[in-house]
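User: Quick sanity check before I run a bigger batch. Here is a single chain. Can you write out its predicted 3D structure?
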Amino acid sequence: MKRYYVLVLLIFFTLLSGCGSESTSQPSVPPGVTSVEIAYLNHSPVKPVLTQVDDLLKQYGDRVQVSRYDFGTPEGETFAQDRDLTIHTPLAIFIDGSMEATIGDRTVKFYSFPQGQGTGVVDSGAWTIDDLRQALDEAVKNKS
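Assistant: Done. Predicted structure follows.
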């Protein structure tokens, strides 16, 4: 009987050790596939930008694996915390784990709204949908 209790306790502590704060580290991505993680506020000013991003991502088919994190969900909050993002960030896009990409001779950060699409409350970032396209083209090319 004592062995039974020890076994139960061992199983309990093993399961317990797997609980707790989990990191939303980069999801498992098949070889040759580019990871795209999108964290966003699920508010109306962000939705048109997400539509533009989605339209672009569709062009890459199965060469990209997209994960989405709504800041208003527990998963989104954990993702934001892991990536040092504030909840007031309208949009952040990570390509293969990085929010920055080198395009030509400049570094672009896919953070906040694209240029010219900010709101009166939140400024636009220093990137464009074309910048995102170029960064994705490069990332996909490097995986082939």
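Confidence is low (pLDDT under 50) at residues 4-25.

User: Great, the batch can go ahead then.
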